[in-house]
Amino acid sequence: MKHFLGDGGTYLGKDQGETRTTREQLIRTHALGYFGALEGGVQTVMISYSSWTDTGVGKPHGKMHGNRELITDVLKGKLGFDGIVVSDWNAIEQVAGCTRTHCPQAINAGIDMIMVPDDWKQFIEETIADVEKGVIPMSRIDDAVTRILRVKMRSGLFDRSPIPAASAEADMASDAARATAREAVSKSLVLLKNNARSPLPLKRNAKILLVGKGADKVTAQLGGWSLTWQGDETDDNDYPLADDMLSALQKAVSDGGKVDFSADAIGIDVKSYDAVVVVHAEKPYAEMKGDISYPASLRHSERYPEDYATLERVSGKGVPVVSVLFSGRPVYANDLINMSDTFIAAWLPGTEGQGVTDVLFGGAKDFQGKLPFDWPRASCPETARKPVLFRRGYGLKLAKKSNLGRLPEDGVETCPALAE
Fold it and tell me: To which H or E segment does residue 330 belong?
């Protein structure tokens, strides 16, 4: 369970930044997910890189890794958590007065296991010295060791020896695992726009034009934390069993149907097709590398102008257009939505592209997904008069047509400065 607490609410979304909120809102807004996880029996909690400032009283509490009140008094005390509290990667060095190898403040705050990936030998030496000098009470060490042993005993690590090695390849590539992943994809798609000209559900015998730079790439569907941290330095050869949108569509058509593909739609006669499917895709990213840091705009087309250009080449030609967006977050896409008859937030469907086509072709499948976050109406929602286009929980069914009208578009590249 991570990252405790307020990691998702930092000022302007800054990674490892400052969560500015009252104590009441910290509990009501930022802590809600943790209550259910604790009730579900979670055994480890990772602390957030972020800091918290109580805006109700104007008090800065500093980095969460040094916050004894929230870690020991609240999490372990009031909430009764008796598992392991673990730090994040080298996060202790951000606590005031600490380094990567020395941070009695974090241990005394209640962290039981410290993630020190490189300099752990020196960390052990300096921590032992702190215990010998009384800077860290032995009772704190006893508590940490007890919690670690408790979780290991609960997990059965001492009940069997040796522990059999898991066959990740067999498990993750099994028919059952892939079927579950495919079902998860189909249930997570969110239908944002479905106007009267929408071609959904697609017919199996339709002539379909597929366009977009990410339409024939599994890596565009994966994002970060896949085979590599940022999801880069891989290609489709690393995923031999996976389906991208091209292969998924090809498997879905039958009875005279066909799928043609063009990455950029240059020189294509769109009018010879029954429908166009356009894939818009973010490049793979994980934490930090993929951040949209203020004052940068949330406009997808600002970061990926080639997606806009491709859509522009096929839109307005008398053939219905279905846009599918692969992204790790809601983005400003009014311009893309305006040029599409159907617009789908597909998030990151991973290896199971057929989970998308299962819904595009209908049959027994319909859209079930609902937005987990508000969808922005403006590229700079922090300063917009109407910042939200679709509220959290929004999501259409195939039978529900939407009359959005033409959405306002802005070409903002850099958002206005905000007062601290």
Answer: none
**Residue 288 is assigned to a structural domain of this protein:** yes
* CA–CA distances in Å: residue 212 to residues 180, 261, 315, 334: 27, 9, 13, 18
Spatial contact of 88 and 49, defined as CB atoms under 8 Å apart: yes
Q: Kindly give the pairing relationship between strand 59-63 and strand 51-54.
A: antiparallel
CA distances, 189 to each of 170, 180, 255, 321, 360 (Å) = 28, 15, 27, 17, 10
Q: How far is CA 278 from CA 250, 294, 308, 315, in A?
A: 15, 29, 10, 10
> Catalytic one among 7, 18, 88, 130?
88
Q: Are residues 102 and 237 in the same domain?
A: no
Q: Record the pTM.
A: 0.89
- 98 with 246, same domain: the answer is no
Residue 44's CATH number: 3.20.20.300
Task: State yes or no: is 118 an active-site residue.
Answer: no
Instruction: Kindly report, residue by residue over 371-401, the tens digit of the pLDDT.
Output: 999 999 999 999 999 999 999 999 999 988 8
Q: How remote is the C-alpha of 227 from its chain's centroid? A: 16
Residues 74 and 148 reside in one and the same domain: yes
Alpha helices in 189-333 (DSSP H): 245-252, 300-303, 305-314
Euclidean distance between CA atoms 47 and 85, whole angstroms: 7
Q: Which two tokens stand for residue 271?
A: 């009018």
Which residues have a Cβ under 8 Å from the Cβ of 220 and sit 6 or more positions away? 213, 214, 244, 279, 281, 282, 283, 284, 326
Regarding whether 195 and 84 lie in a shared domain, the answer is no
- Tell me if 212 is assigned to some domain: yes
Residue from 193, 337, 213, 342 nearest 281 by CA: 213
Q: Which tens digits make up the pLDDT trace of 109-146? A: 999 999 999 999 999 999 999 999 999 999 999 999 99
Catalytic residue among 54, 216, 232, 287: 287
Confirm whether 88 is a catalytic residue. yes
